[in-house]
Design goal:
With 298 residues, this protein is an all-alpha fold. The chain folds into two domains: 5-153, no CATH class; 158-297. 77% of the residues lie in helices and 0% in strands. The N and C termini lie far apart (45 Å). Keywords: Membrane, Transmembrane, Transmembrane helix.
Length: 298
Amino acid sequence: MRVRIQPVALGLVVAAVVPYIALKVVWLTGASIGVQDDTALAELHSTRMVVGNNLTILLELMAVGLALALSSGWGRRVPAWIMLSLGAGATGLLAPILLGLPIGSVLQLVVQGEVRTGGMEHLRPWVFAVVYGGFGLMAIGIVVLAARYAAVRWSHVLRRAPHPPPVWVGVAGGLGLVPFGAAMLWWGVSGPGSTGPQAMDAVVQRTTLVVTGLLAVAGLLAPLLPGISGRAPRLAWLAVWVGCTTAALQAPTHVLLADGGHPSRAMLLIGVLTISGSSIYGLLLLRRHLAHDRLHAA
């Protein structure tokens, strides 16, 4: 019996979102489910956490909306910039979790015999499963739906690898992706210390930092190696997309919030360069590619 993959993928997204939103709603009502001590309970009901929980509920609902659009015929009639914006947000936030969490969890389980992470000491173990397991399921579902959607709507873009960029675009991409990627790799390998993202000391969290850094570097290099990207154009576009969106979305959290929430001027500069440089690089690569397509079609 042939299984229709789109309903299954959509079901994964919904299955991931429902318990996560339920947990956040319960916390917003003042309940203490999943919390182990009074210190964490006080923090849970602070203004910062209340705003954060409301924001994450909104993001989860947007992810469901994206999944519905990706799996429905009407989704192909939605303006491309809306779908690309939502897809970029989902990719940038979820890619390091999807790729780094399984590897990091196995490594930490082998090394330390548990998968508890920084910031989760005051919460029940099942909260980790609901939150990060849900992120993983959501990412898998959206990846499946997005791959099928892009293959139908943008097959003409994906059939040829991205063209090598002009020098100034490459410089912008290098400024945006290399310092950020190097910082992520350094903090992932050596630990965040006092200058890196705080509460990211666990093996599983440091693995996601390494993955984030590798994705940023891969996004920069893919168009610069035409001999390799030409043999696998879709893989090259995937590297550019994931690398640029990951850098643009992870920079505010991992760079701007370094040094315990008080980033130095150097960290602020890296953050600004990352967001602007990765965006310029990705968007202009796509624009240049589409211009070549129109020229050949004329």
